Amino acid sequence: MTRLLPKEPVIAALDEEWSSLLELLEGLDDAAWDSATPCPGWDVRAAVAHIIGTESMLIGIDPPAGGDADAERPAHVRNDIGAFNESWVTGLATAPPADLVARLRELTTARLDTLRSMDPVAWDAEGFTPVGRDTHGRFMRIRVFDCWMHELDIRDAIGRPGHESGPAVELALDEMTESLGYVVGKKAGTPAGSAVQFELTGPSGRTISIDVAERATVVESLAGPPTATLRMPVGTFARLAGGRVDPASVADQVELEGDVELGRRVVDNLAFTI
I want to staple 263 with a disulfide (CB 3.0 to 4.6 A). Which of 4, 186, 227, 256 is the partner? Predict the structure, then answer.
């Protein structure tokens, strides 16, 4: 099922996300760019190169020389999308940080101009997205999620927490919610007749309910009390869903109620990103 998403909130969220990211990057010294992020094999420079690469692809720019997508894959590259990402990481490996920031600013400004001028037919048109065929609007919501996740990676790498609320976070959580039926039903093996509820705390917190009948489905509300409730900050949820942290390392940030064994199984299987 395709997602027809209103254009203006998604573009506003992208604008907010890219502004937050650029503000963060402009304050880094050169040494910080070599800090390891939670993404295996990637430092801050690699995370920024990845974002530059995807936005460049969307505007029709090829990877730079030295970014060979057909080269032998490092251990952390597990699929073709990962190989494409790595072509930009290697291609921009020696670029000065100031040049990367300038390039990202120029790209995101151009991308926002393109998106704002896009007509509704093009915005709603079906095509490639990282999760299969869907509308261009859905792809852009995925961009909000992806860029925000990598901003969190950078913040964790340099020890500068922040940006866990606001329009970009709200849309990133909307996108992440799409995968929770799969996580709860298939990955965690929640039995039919059960229900799982996430209570995310903080300024952008929300309640997400999953009812498991023939299949696990995100629903507006549950008919009765949940079988298991998982309560945690938005940032903890994002890092678990992104596979950025070992569940055991954030156990003190997660409260489980009801069927604790089921709740723990959901937490242990929450990672779903590629």
Answer: 256
